[in-house]
Each structure stands twice: as structure tokens, then as C-alpha cells.
Amino acid sequence: MKQTIGIAGLAVMGENLVLNMASKGYSVSVYNRTSSKTEKFVNGRGKNDKIHGFTEIKDFVDSLERPRRIMMMLKAGNPVDQFIEQLLPFLEAGDLIIDGGNSNYHDTNRRLAMLRERGLLYIGTGVSGGEEGALKGPSIMPGGSAEAWPLVKDIFTATSAQLEDGSSCCAWMGPEGAGHFVKMVHNGIEYGDMQLICEAYQFMKDVLGMDHSAIHDTFANWQQGDLNSYLIEITAEITSHKDEDGAPLLDKILDAAGQKGTGKWTVNAALDSGVPLSLISESVFARCLSSNTELRTLAADTFHIPTPAFDGNVQHMLDHLGTALYCAKIISYTQGFGLLQAASQEFNWGLDFASIARIWRGGCIIRSVFLDHIAEAYQGDKYPANMLLAPYFTDTLQKGHASLREVLATGVKAGIPLPCHSASLAYFDGLRTKRLPANLLQAQRDYFGAHMYERTDRPRGEWFHTNWTGTGGDTTSTAYSK
User: Fold this and answer.
1) Is residue 347 within 8 Å of 274, Cβ to Cβ?
2) Is 128 helix (H, G, I), strand (E, B) or coil?
3) Same domain, 263 and 349
4) How many angstroms separate the CA atoms of 378 and 340, rounded?
């Protein structure tokens, strides 16, 4: 008897996704490059009459019903290309390959085009939720060959997280690399969310002088309100966790953050599209700075700047901090959805932003009640040019920006870094400023490079150059984008 789907790659996500699919009644063939891992899985956690292990690729492929569905849960990059090459000799026209890893959307575009020429279908899908999500129900973001969607729709919707109204946290994103692009932006927003929470934690610890118990209580309290989210929930648990000696474990964890590249890809995509992604960019750079522990230790021993004791009302400042964190979070998502809007228009993907917000509502790392407001903002054919211009977010920022300023002023005086909170306020103030000093910047560019400028008293699209020194000519530059 043939199996419904094959999973290649039995790392944490692969194993748990297999168990998830089997629990939903689907028969699954599994393969891993290291045969011993396959054998250990099918004789251990995966010992189930729905799960069948194979040590040879040909046998793995032959075990599947046609058209074959093969999902790779592999490390992004060369391992994906290499495995596709190993699969090709055993596949037939109409078979489907699915990449469920965090691949770069450019690679997904390339692979889809290559496989299309061979008569094969390809899906690049984001799968978010970590180990627990993969096992119990992740958020799934597929895109690629449109004709492939019916082949996996039932499997993916059954396997994904389910919301209270019964809807699935899985939806078709669009053609080409749309699925992996959406997952990439999800991860970029995740970077921003995590850094914002870390900044709030440091503010409580180093400015307000709160102990871990009080910090835990604050995050637990925030979890009951607008900030309700998976990341706030786990932060409350982390801040209360004790090591074997009874001391807070958090104090013993090295402050050097890791990353796998999706945050950097998001920033690169924003630069390519000309989308301001300042908060998420700062979250990536904050991780880079944290990793250089030796340099930071040297600088800390070099610069002796006293930290003034906070002498205000702690609870009053905590109220400001919660509001500031929520406002900054809104701005982070605003930038992320701005990038999605730009990509959808540039690549003609037709992304459904309301649907994206809904499928992120459950299963994924950035799941939160706040996403319901985003889905509402993008509901229907007409949606705001910028998320902050939707009524709910306009009202929230109008009321809350003062708290963001209060927290930043206090943090700056105390000498603690708040890069993402700072970036959020700079973006907000820049967005609401009708006339920015870019007029001077354009004059500078024209002065040294004859790059020209537009005028406020002439129609847009008319370009002018001034002979600023009196010794220059009338020749203008065409080397740079205006």
C-alpha cells in the first residue's frame, strides 16, 4: 500500500511534523540522509502503523502514491538543491516537491522554474511554530505552483493550527516564492518582537531595579491584556525559571544572541524595495552587537558612566512601559506589512494581508490577539496605504506615543540601549512629519554630484539642477536613482 506523503529530513521540525500528520490519519514515508536516524525514529517516537521508514531514496519515492508528494524539512541552501538532484531520477511528470524549510525566496523562484521545465510541481512553504507547533499545529504559508495547492490543501489545513472558530492557520499565499517571502517577513517581525521584549526586560531590571519575581509578575499581567501573545507568555515562564541551585536561570545564560539569517534577508529585501524597515533592522544589528561579548566587556571597562537611580513611581513607569511596548510592536508590524505590500505589488503576487494576519493568529511564534486588529485593517479590497492609518492603530498611537517618549527619555538618562523602541518612535515621528529635511539632502546631492532635485512649486517629475558654485556646468548625473 502506498503512502500519502513523504517527509525527508528528521530533525526537530521534520520529526514532529510527521507525528502530526500521522495523528491526523495520513500515512507518511520518512527518509533521512543518516539511516540510523530514520531507524531510531521509526522504532521510537515514530513507531506507528502510519509511519514507514526508508533508507534508500528510490524506495522512499516508490513508496508514495501518485502524484507523489515529497516534503523536504532540510537546512536551507545547498542541502535542498542537492536533495532535489537526488530525487529527480525517480520522479515523473506531475509529482510535487515541497520545501518546508526557511529557504530564501529567490532560491524558491529558481527551483520552481527549473522543475517546471521538467514537468514537476513545486511549493515553497513557511512552517512556523517551532517544535511544539510542528507537533500540535503550526502556521503554514505555502506558495508556488498553483496547480499543486489542491494536492496538499487537505493535508496542510488538517495539520496546521486551528482557531476557535474552526478555521485553519494555513492559506495559499501566491505564486513563485510568495510563501517563503511571507515566512521570511514573519521571522523579521519575530526578530523585532523578541528584541522589544528584551529591551522591556532590561528596563525593568536595570532602570527600575526589579527582581525576577516582579519581572515575571509584570509579563504575566501583560499577558492578560493587549500584549497577549506567545512570546510574552514564554517570557513570563522564562523569567520565573530557576536553575538547579534555586537561582534564576536567566542570569546564567550568556548574552550572545544567535541567528540563522532570515532577519538579515528581510532587511535586504526591504533595502531592495526601498521600504523603511528600521525597527526590524535594529533588531538584527542588536543581535550582531550582542555576539561581540569581548568587545562589549572591553568597552564596559573603558567607559565609566554612572547610572542614576530611578526615583519615580515604579508602577506608573511600568504602565508607560507596557503601553510603549505595545506601540512599538504595532510599528514593527506596520513595517513588516509595508514590506509585504511592496513585494506583492512588485512581484504581482496578490497577497491577501488579512489572510496572512489570520493564519499567524495561531500556531506560529508571533501569534497574538493583536493580529485580529491587523486582519480587520486589511479586510476587503480597500486597505490603508500604511497600517498606522487604520482607525484602531491611529487611535492607539495617538494615545500611546507619550508613553513611548517617557520610556525612551528615562532609558536614555539611565544609559541603557533601547534600539528598537528608539527606532519605532523615529519611524512614527518621521511618518507624521509633513516636511522632512530631505530637501537639504537633495540640495547636497545636487551640489556635489549634479543629481538634480524636484521643486515644491513645480509638478512632481520635473527635475532641476543648480550651478551652486558658479563654476560648474549644466551637465547632470544619471548614474544614481533620483
Assistant:
1) no
2) strand
3) yes
4) 12
The closest alpha carbon to 255, from 310, 201, 302, belongs to 201
Domain that holds residue 460: 436-482
Q: Judge whether residue 482 has pLDDT over 50.
A: no
Residue given cell 523585532 in the structure block: 192
| Residue 183 appears among annotated catalytic residues | yes
CATH of the domain at 297: 1.10.1040.10
Residue of 190, 199, 282, 406 with catalytic role: 190
Q: How confident is the model at residue 334 (pLDDT cuts 50, 70, 90)?
A: very high
Within this chain, do residues 287 and 312 fall inside the same structural domain, yes or no?
yes
Q: Please, how many CA atoms are within 13 Å of residue 8, restricted to the half-sphere of its CB? A: 26
**Considering its fold, how many domains does the chain have in total?**
3
The chain-wide mean pLDDT, for the chain, equals 95
The domain that holds 136 is classified in CATH as: 3.40.50.720
What's the CA gap between 47 and 143, in Å, rounded?
A: 32
CB 357 within 8 A of CB 378: yes
Q: Which three cell numbers stand for residue 450?
A: 549634479
Together in a domain, 43 and 155: yes
Whether the per-residue pLDDT at 341 is higher than 70: the answer is yes
Pair 202, 360: CB distance under 8 Å: no
- 199 part of the active site: no
- The pLDDT of residue 481 is 53
Lowest-confidence pick of 221-225, 362-366, 403-407, 420-424: 362-366
**368: pLDDT strictly greater than 70:** yes
Active-site entry in 15, 37, 176, 183: 183
Q: Do residue 195 and residue 327 come from a single domain?
A: yes
Q: What is the pLDDT of residues 83-136, one digit of tens each?
A: 999 999 999 999 999 999 999 999 999 999 999 999 999 999 999 999 999 999
Residues 150 and 218 in one domain: no
> Cα(102)–Cα(215) distance, rounded to whole angstroms?
33
Distance of CA 361 to the CA centre of its chain: 14
